[in-house]
Amino acid sequence: MDDIVIASSQDDAVAIEAVKEHHAQLAGALTARADALVAAAARGTDADAEAARPGLVEWCRRELLPHAVAEEEALYPAARRRPEGRLLVQGMLGEHQVIVDLVDEIAAAADPVRAAAAARALSVVFQSHLEKENELVLPLLGADPEVDVADLLAGMHDLLGAGRGSAEETGGSGGHGCGCGEEDGPGYPELDARTIPHAIRHATVFGALDTVEPGGGLVLVAPHDPLPLLAQLQKRSPDTFTVSYRERGPEAWRLLLVRAAETARSTTAASA
């Protein structure tokens, strides 16, 4: 993904960057929740899988699907007015329906394996969908001097930023939520940041960490020692996570981040 934002004004460039960052946070949160369900199903622990499934479905219906509706109302009409955007928007709307159908499939699946398969499919489809929005829809709007992207997004708080509700309120991912602080080993979901474009890597990781409930954790795989990210995390959520290294290069750095049992998710997105 390109780090350069092409826009007809500084305000539009800032608005486009905000959307891209929010996209990364959504992708990270979805990956963490979907991977928790997939990992539980792969281990054959039906109880853990069934515990993860409602949280994933609820989060999708509270965050992911409203985000899609907001895009249909704020972004797509302007893109559709451009001749080169008509078929693109038609395809994006079709993908929105696929996303809705996959969420319903996760909720209605007869067993954890089928739910996990639908969750994995949702994660892949959503990531592909975001890439097209970031690389096709947003540049199309940003380069058009007749489109005020910042104005289109004015008041779209859900689209631009702050997630609602804490991890313990919404059934976050990352191990058991009993509050004892004990690690539950292989039950932690894993986020491989090596595959995430550098420009959105931190936002994606923060989105995933926002889903971790008190006492739960996330295994982060990084292409280098993520000291800058850890410093930013400490500033963003002071003393919220304990960090332990499981592997220190040279190919990968593997860290376990565990949320303090008594600490709720930091609400920092409002300042974004």
Written overview of the protein:
By secondary structure, the chain is an alpha+beta fold. It folds into 2 domains: 10-160; 167-271, TusA-like domain (Translation Initiation Factor IF3), CATH 3.30.110.40. Helices cover 56% and strands 9% of the residues. It has helices spanning 10-43, 46-74, 76-80, 86-108, 112-142, 149-152, 157-160, 167-170, 201-209, 227-236, and strands at residues 190-192, 217-222, 241-248, 253-259. The protein has a 4-stranded mixed beta sheet with strand order 1-2-4-3. Strand 3 (241-248) and strand 4 (253-259) form a beta hairpin. Helix 1 packs across helix 9. The longest helix has 34 residues, at 10-43. It is globular, with a radius of gyration of 19 Å. Residues 160-186 and 263-272 have low confidence and may be disordered.
